[in-house]
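Objective 1b: paired records.
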Amino acid sequence: MGRFARVGAMVGALSLMASLALTGCGDDPKKAEFVGGTPTAGSSVAAESGTAPAVPAASAGPPLTVSPADGAKNRPVSAEISAEIPEGGKVTDIALTAANGGKVEGRWRADGSSWVPNSALKYGTRYTAVVTAAGEGGETRQGTSTFTTMAKPKSTIASGLYLFSDKTYGVGMPVVAEFHPGIPAKDRKAVQKRMFVRTDPPQPGAWHWVSNGTQAYYRAPEYWKSGTTITVRIALAGIPLSNGKYGNVDRSATAKIGRSFVMKVDNATKKMTVYEDGQVVRTIPVSLGKKSTPSSSGTMVVMEKKESTTFDTRDDPDPANRYVTEIDFAQRLTWGGEYIHAAPWSEHAQGRQNVSHGCVNVSTAHAKWLFSQTKVGDPITIKGTERKLTAGNGWTAWSLSWAEFVKGSALPVPEGGSGPDLA
């Protein structure tokens, strides 16, 4: 059982280092790739992008007050557009353009509180926002604001998104946002308001922050429905934090959820029961961690898969746990080094006795079959061992009940979960 340090290699040559002083049966550093890119543009209807036909500007009263204020300077590139609307009035159009004439697309927040550009604004650039609203009697009013964004900050916070566009994941795949250094507790509300998730078909969800603020998970009350499309935007570019740092970039991804494939391991029986779409498809004898190096009890998900790898634990402080072993059909469950993998040397004990260094040992034949069936994000629940899964040791979003999970949100969560943040 070896200590494990992980290094995340971000898209765009961004490096993110995080480590956990945890132990497991493997010590193979994980290179986590982070998704970045341009968010999907909203549609061109007024409620989403502000490109509806212009309303005649026959003003029937004083101009609307627009935010950011006219003449404002050094505004964050995460700025959103809003206006003070008379009672009974309704915004009919928002047009945001850069000084070079480039038009900015965007979407309304679901509660109508502001209009969110589809991508971060550019640093050191002048923008003009024109907001048009109609009153109850059909009269129109307009407000205009020209503001300038701040220069690119020198001190930023690194972020990552564990989700790849055009990939298919298991039903237990949480949305995982990562930050280095962690987000201070007093900033998490503002940051969470800029973390947008949309599911099709719609399913409620919530965010949960790991205690040190280095990760936040998003999940639904139950596993995702098979066939779900998840669209995510972690819109942190330029968002100011209380420690003087700013978010570095926006990250986005659109991914699919595949069929339901769920694994359940019971230490009492030393067996894994495998369910596909709710039906038992295989029962597999296992050997879990021995008492001195127990497996973790809780719900984990497959984080990565390697057909062959090397477990090297020669730096373990306990000489009894030092070894170098070639491993086949390895599927990572924790950052600390717990895997499902082939263990031909323990087949005599599988189904009868725990002899591993914390991993789920199965026969080579069963390991090969499992490897051919699973996807990243497929959940596995282990129960009855001497150790409880540690929050943040892997993608541990499902190790909590829904009632416990929502307590980790920085914002109030409606009963049953929140809907999409953007209209």
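Objective 1b, second protein:
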Amino acid sequence: MRPGDRWTLAGARWSRGGGDGAFTVTDPATGETVGEVPVGTAVDVAAAVAAATRAAPGWAATAPAERGAALHGAASAVERHADDLAALVTAEMGKPADDALGGVRAGIGTLRQYAELGPLHGGRSLQGGWSAADFMAREPLGLVAIITPWNDPVAIACGLIGAAVVTGNTVVHKPSERTPHTGALLTELLAGSLPAGVLNMVSGDGTTGEALAGHPDLDAIAHVGSTRTGRRVAELAAASGAKTLLENGGADPLIVDADVDPAWAAEQAATGCFANAGQICTSVERIYVHGAVAKDFVAALTARAQALRPGPGDDPSTELGPLVDERHRSQVHEQVEKAVADGARLRAGGRIPDGPGCFYPATVLDYCTDHMAVMAEETFGPVAPVRAVASFEEALDRANRSRYGLAATVLTRDMAHAQRAWRTLKAGTVKINAVFGGAPGGAATPRRASGRGFGYGPELLDEMTAVKVVHLETDVS
């Protein structure tokens, strides 16, 4: 199931949209063409914004229970086409099939979560005098632009769009230019259960995103993606006064304490560094390992990296899919080469393989230093840079020497160390003894250069609403 020429949705009208510009999406595993996509114009953006504006009053006035029921319907539509969406994710960005389907199922679960929580979302009241009452009511922000990434295009879009529409907002969705077919099909499935104009869409590249984020009629912009783009979104929002929800890049540290089994720690590190070829917002980007276990840890991590089976995402035996495109692979390899030139020791990977596609091997580097880009910046590839440290305190100190603050992981048997870590680390999420995981409905709020505002969880409903304070006097005598 492909979107065909349905690339722009404004109200009830789908069209191809775009002007003279277009771009080609290729399968990163084979190099074959997935499709050609028009570049949405400012005219397309204006039409989508106008449709969302027209729909806003009626949707805001719709009973919360009705909005929740509509979102349940949208979740059912996505569920019916889960395999189609997963296949598009694999074709466009290379994610192994099981992981791609897992992302779609996570999105469905998030839609149903918000369908249930949305009607229960409210404010609070205060008792003043006998004839007066004060209350804080939650109202929709209004018109929300949602700009979604390519690395988990269904789950993230479902979370942001679901929270926005269930709280009474209307939306203009701009999917990543790297996964536009996935974004278009997802929008079509969601919009089919909503009144016309509640969910709209424009496809395109960065120029389309710029036109959308800079539109003066927006009330909020939610963006998940690179730090550079997030900063530009913040600049545009500052000019219009739109609220921003930003999840930008990260350089998430992993700390390995002296008292853990180095083989187990290496398995955790391999998962954190190599899952989805390292293309996860909260991937492990730098590792600080206590010198007492560093040698065994690096040896085990190297063996695990060398054992991973690379291949196309539609092969069930694949453990490491390709990077999203050649441009991204070049950026990852450049960081690795520069680290080696600056003294890092290459233990595994680090070389671009022959053949088609954008594959990059699981790579392990040790003797890394904090000034190397592979440690200081977000690599977003299957790279594990390691630095040995003399103490747990040194690891905490080095982990905090970053402009980013998305997430951090600590592996330790010492609960005093665990307590000190979550108290000390300057990150929105701190994970103890597991690189991934967390309870359903968990929220996250990035810090510093990694962004602002809650993403996911019940708290996202707060972010998608504004508080109105009302003082009501009933005695008019």
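The mean pLDDT is 96. The chain has two domains: 8-248+450-470, 253-432.
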